[in-house]
Amino acid sequence: MSCTGSLSRKFSPKWIILTGLSLCMVATMLLVFHGGSPEDYWPYVFPAFAIGSSGAMLIFTHGSIAIFQAVPSSMAGTVGAIFNSALQFGSAIGIAVTTSIETSVEATHGGSEEYTGRAAAFWFLAAVVAVQFISISVFYDRSTDHKPQPKHGEHGYPARLSTESKEKYDDDGKVTMAMSTSPQLEV
């Protein structure tokens, strides 16, 4: 479980996500140069798993925070479902592509070098992480960072906007006149 959620109060999620992608890039490079021998486990594989897991945790946690900061709360359920569907779809496609790269390289090299296919798959993953890093660097819009969401009862709160009332607001956003257009029940 991630305990880094409070970091987004002090830093922009953009920089936290870029830090996570940098950690994933370092981990992937360690796995590329691993070589496949058991002696390389502690200097390459173990640090790669520790660093890569930390980076992935930062990306997932603060990616969610960034997405939910950018959308209105009335769309949070829909956006959450799309985000989780994209994660599952990307995982399935990523595993399939990585496995096909590994098996095709191993088939091409005739199995003479047992780690060649895995190294090629890790090079592919390094390229994917690099593209993600560049994309976040260029296209992440920080205008929604730390933007306060309206509270219940305030102007702009989605539940208030969906009611059938005609309210007028002054310059401070306070209700000056409210008139309901829904039928009133009399007892």
Automatic annotation (TrEMBL):
Q: Where is this region: Disordered?
A: 145-187
> Record's GO cellular component, any one?
membrane
Q: How does this protein sit in the membrane?
A: Multi-pass membrane protein
Extent of the signal sequence: none
Q: Where is the composition biased (Polar residues)?
A: 178-187
Q: Which UniProt keywords apply?
A: Membrane, Transmembrane, Transmembrane helix, Transport
Its annotated compartments are: Membrane
Give the compositionally biased regions (Basic and acidic residues): 145-174
Q: Which domain of life is it from?
A: Eukaryota
| InterPro entries xref list | MFS_trans_sf (IPR036259)
Q: Which residues cross the membrane?
A: 15-35, 41-60, 81-101, 121-140
User: For this UniProt entry, what is the primary localization, expressed as one broad class?
Assistant: membrane
Q: What is this protein called?
A: MFS general substrate transporter
Organism for this UniProt entry? Rhizopogon vinicolor AM-OR11-026
Q: What is the lineage of its organism?
A: Eukaryota, Fungi, Dikarya, Basidiomycota, Agaricomycotina
